[in-house]
């Protein structure tokens, strides 16, 4: 299976190796992609574990799990990253498309990361935009970027 994060690599050679702890996320963007892939594969534990400590205290496993279970993640676009400009608090801005209860949404978020105990962690994010998408027509290209018809893909 291709990695959910959208880099055209096998999941096992991309985010899964980070999620499984075989390799470390070298950049905030890699951590962000691995967290997205963890949502896509419903790995609530990894999402919880990659919160920076101050933020982790405000999270509950159950909330993360139910959010992951209610959503199907279709596509990730990384829009920009500040990692070489702002080393203390690097940010990654992305758009993600997901499906929840038969509706499709786009969310844009600017996420902030910190380097904590020798690893990149997710500190918090500010929602830049969150919108309901008009679903494609059945014969149009799917929202996920597969180039398949919508009716044969994420419909
Ligand atoms: Zn990946
Ligand atoms: Zn699709």
What characterizes the major β-sheet? Answer: 4 strands, antiparallel
Number of strand segments: 4
How big a fraction of the residues is strand?
25-35%
Shape summary: globular
CATH architecture: Roll
State the order of secondary-structure elements, H for helix, E for strand: HHHHHEEEE
Euclidean distance between termini CA atoms? 19 Å
Could you give the order of strands across the largest sheet?
1-2-3-4
Bound molecules: zinc ion
What is the fold named in CATH at topology level? Nuclear Transport Factor 2, Chain: A
Uncertain runs are: none
Provide mean pLDDT, rounded.
Answer: 94
- Cα-based radius of gyration, to the nearest Å: 16 Å
What is the count of structural domains? 1
Tally of separate helices: 5
- What is the CATH C-level name? Alpha Beta
Q: Which bin fits the share of residues in helices?
A: 10-25%
Oligomeric grouping of the chains: single chain
Q: Which class of secondary structure composition applies to the elements? A: alpha+beta
Fold and architecture overview:
This protein has helices at residues 15-19, 28-40, 44-49, 53-56, 61-70, and strands at residues 71-81, 91-100, 103-116, 119-133. It has 155 residues and is an alpha+beta fold. The protein has one domain (11-152): Nuclear Transport Factor 2, Chain: A (Roll). Strands 1-2-3-4 form a 4-stranded antiparallel beta sheet. Strand 3 (103-116) and strand 4 (119-133) form a beta hairpin. The mean pLDDT is 94. The structure holds zinc ion (2 copies). One zinc ion is lined by residues 3, 5, 7, 14-15, 33, 37.
